Amino acid sequence: GFLPSSCSDVKPNTNGSQLLFEQGQDPTAICPATSQTVYSGIVGNLTADNIVRLYASEIQEINDMIDCCQPVVCVAETSRKLSSGNESCDLFDVQSKWSGKFYEPWVDSFSEAQYLSEWFLMSSLNNMTIPPNKTLDDMVRLGSVHNAHMQLITNQFNAENFGSTLLVHLVSSMEEGITKSKVSVDSGDGPQLLHDPTSQFLYYAGHDINLLYLKNMLRLEWETTNWMSNQPNPGSMLVFEIHADAGKAESTSIDDFYLQAYFMAASPVQIRNAESLSPLNAPDRVAVSIPHCSKDVSLSDGSTQLQCRFTAFKSVVGKSIEQVCVSPSLQSYASSLLNESWTSSFWSIETIVIALLAMALAVVTFRYIALSRNHASVEYGKYSAIV
C-alpha cells in the first residue's frame, strides 16, 4: 500500500517473515516467553510494582488526565469487590495478575498505564488534539512509561529466544553483500536469503520490538536529542553500514571490511507536522558503539573513526544468539558463527599463553644476566664458574 503506483506489479514474498520478525507469538518449550520466576530476577518481585514506583509521578499524571478509573477496573476477580476497600479507583489500584503473555506479562497498573502512555503519544504524533494544558513535549515525556514497558518485555531472555533468527539473517545478508556470492541456507521453516547478493541496500521493515531485540542481543545503547534513552520511536531506524578498507573496494574478502552503526529518528515535531526530511531538515543520526567490536581507528588525516571489523562482528553475533531458537533455514549458518566465535577465543587464549611464556623467558634471561655479573664481581671472583 505504500509503494508508488509504478511498482504495482511488485509482489512481496512473505514466506518465513513471521519467524524473521517474531514478536513473541510463537513461544515453544525450548524458546519460551519469559516466565514469572525469570521476571522476578529482573524486576525484583513477582509483580512489576518496583517499576511502577519508579514511574509513579508519570503514572499519576496520566491518571489525572483521564480521571481514571471506573470502579470495575479495580475489582478483584476473586472477591468481586474493590481491592482498595472503598469506592475510589485509580491506576494504582489495579490489581496485579500474572498473564504470561509476551506483550503483557502482568495485567496491572503498569500494563494499563503504559497502554495509555502509548495511546497519548501516538495520537499526538498523528497531529491529533493534545490534552488540555499539555504540550507535545509532555506527551513525549509521559511516553517514558510505554518505553519502560517495551524495554521490560524485550529483556535479554525474550530477545535471544525471539530475535536470534533476525540477527543471523542480518549478518548472513551482510556477508553476501561483501563476498558477492550466495550464503548457503537450509530448507525448512524460516526466512531464506532471497535478495540479490550484489545488492547495495537492504531494508528490514520490522517492529519496534524487533529493533529492541537487536539492541539487547548486541548490547547497544543510543541517546538522541528528542527521545528517551534507547527508545524505538515511530519511524526510527537502526542502520548498519559496511565499508571497505582503503584500496579494498573491489575485494570480496570479509577480512577487508568493517561496520559502522547508527540510530536515526525524526523529531516529535517533524513527525507531528509530517515534515519532509532532507539534509536541511534532517532527523537525528547518532553513532552507536557495538560492545566487544567497535574500536578507535586513527586515519591518515589525523582523525579518529569508530570501526567494528566484520570478522569480529560475526564472532559477537555467534556469542549473542540462542542457537536453538534460530529458524531451521538458518541453523547451519548460525552454527558457523559459533565456530567463528570459538576460533576467535582459541586464538585469544593462544596469544595470552605465548605472551606469558615470553614473559617467563624474559625473567629467566634477566636473572641469568644478573647472576653472570655477580660472578664477575670481586665477591665471586675467588670461585670458579660452573660451566
UniProtKB/TrEMBL annotation:
It holds the Pfam family His_Phos_2. This is Histidine acid phosphatase. The chain crosses the membrane at residues 346-370. The lineage of its organism: Eukaryota, Sar, Stramenopiles, Oomycota, Saprolegniomycetes. Keywords: Membrane, Transmembrane, Transmembrane helix. It comes from Thraustotheca clavata. Signal peptide: none annotated. SUPFAM superfamilies: Phosphoglycerate mutase-like. The keyword Chloroplast does not apply. InterPro entries: His_Pase_clade-2, His_PPase_superfam. The keyword Membrane applies. It comes from the Eukaryota.
